[in-house]
Design a protein that fits this description.
The protein has helices spanning 90-93, 101-106, 122-127, 138-141, 144-157, 172-184, 196-204, 218-224, 240-249, 273-276, 291-302, 321-330, and strands spanning 2-8, 11-16, 27-35, 57-65, 77-80, 117-120, 129-131, 164-168, 188-193, 209-212, 230-235, 250-258, 282-285, 312-316, 336-339. With 341 residues, it is α/β, with parallel strands linked by helices. Strand 12 (250-258), helix 10 (273-276) and strand 13 (282-285) form a beta-alpha-beta unit. Helix 5 (144-157) crosses helix 6 and helix 5 crosses helix 11 (291-302).
């Protein structure tokens, strides 16, 4: 089968690889659409691991079903999760499924999402395979994973109707946070970025105000929020300056969600802890999505509560995956890039 093999963000090659052979309890999925995630272009995260077949935001059709699989049949339209929790460990039982060791390091696709077919292991079939609703396209189905991640993050941060929200970084993750916060009923959403293209997108997708990062200060938020800082700050940019702005912009009783990592080796100043000690501020993180987050994300799209198709700016064939990686890594005039094998 054809695969797009990642050597670096500037070197993605179309190569032939054997079509996966499924075993007992497994399913083979023909990939119809696969989104390029911001994490796919974090080269430092994969240093020394190339070549790789990446891609984890997938939607497709069940192509083969092995013995022992009862709930799926050839032709089913599906979305799949590459990382799934065990459901039994301490972390799963206490609501921290995405901290489960099975999810973090023991589950994956074979070989990935940027290829024609991928093999799902039994645990993925059991816990990470979901029907794609009839009224959603395959390309919309690729949003189930990233929207599930955003859902989990906003739940941890405590986004509620009437909240004032600052979103730092308006790439695809930030834009998804804007859309979801708007759907949840946030009263005020202010977004920042360093790109005018993304700032315009932030306004288009629901932000009340979009401010260039170099022009942002906590007083900008205060002026838009009757003198108060933000109830919720969501950091979707990896710059230390973004973290500093977030810590300066959260109101008493508010929360800061760190949704993006900084570069390795960078340190973040937390001298504000002495201030937060007296102001009931919560600092939290979020990683990945649990199966229940996938289900909720699909339901939000199915019922029309969250529309995401208009975020797609590029639809490319598998042979153009190298172009897709350049578009995403350059952070230029693209929002969501979909590969359609």
């Amino acid at each position: 089968m054809r695969t797009a093999v990642w050597y670096s963000n500037r070197d993605v090659r179309l190569e032939e690889r054997p079509k996966p052979q499924i075993g007992p309890g497994e399913v083979l999925v023909r990939i119809e659409a696969s989104g390029i995630c911001g994490s796919d272009v974090m080269e430092w995260y994969r240093r020394g691991k190339a070549p790789l077949i990446l891609g984890h935001e997938v939607a497709g059709t069940v192509a083969e079903v092995s013995d022992g699989v009862k709930d799926w049949k050839v032709g089913d339209r599906v979305v799949a999760s590459h990382h799934v929790p065990c459901g039994r460990c301490h972390y799963c039982r206490t609501g921290h499924e995405t901290a489960c060791e099975t999810l973090l390091s023991k589950t994956k696709f074979d070989p990935g999402g940027f290829c024609e077919f991928t093999r799902l292991f039994p645990i993925n079939v059991e816990k990470g395979l979901f029907h794609l609703p009839d009224n959603l396209t395959y390309e919309e189905g690729t949003f189930a994973e990233p929207l599930g991640c955003v859902l989990r993050g906003q739940r941890r941060a405590g986004v509620k109707p009437g909240a004032s929200v600052l979103i730092i970084g308006s790439g695809i993750s930030g834009l998804l946070h804007i859309r979801l916060a708007r759907a949840t009923g946030a009263a005020l959403i202010v977004a920042t970025d360093v790109s005018d293209y993304r700032l315009n997108a932030a306004k288009r997708f629901g932000a009340d105000a979009a401010v260039h990062a170099r022009n942002y200060s906590p007083n900008v938020f205060r002026s838009a929020n009757s003198g108060r800082l933000a109830d919720i700050v969501i950091v979707c940019a990896g710059a230390v300056s973004a973290v500093e702005q977030a810590l300066e912009s959260v109101d008493r009783g508010g929360s800061v969600l760190f949704f993006a990592p900084t570069m390795p080796g960078e340190t973040v100043p937390l001298s504000v802890i002495n201030t937060f000690w007296r102001t009931d501020v919560t600092l939290t993180t979020s990683y990945a999505a649990a199966p229940a987050d996938f289900v909720e994300a699909l339901d939000l799209m199915k019922t029309g509560k969250v529309h995401l198709r208009d975020m797609i700016t590029h639809r490319l064939g598998l042979a153009e995956t190298d172009l897709g990686f350049k578009l995403v890594s350059d952070a230029g005039n693209s929002i969501k890039v979909i590969i359609e094998p």
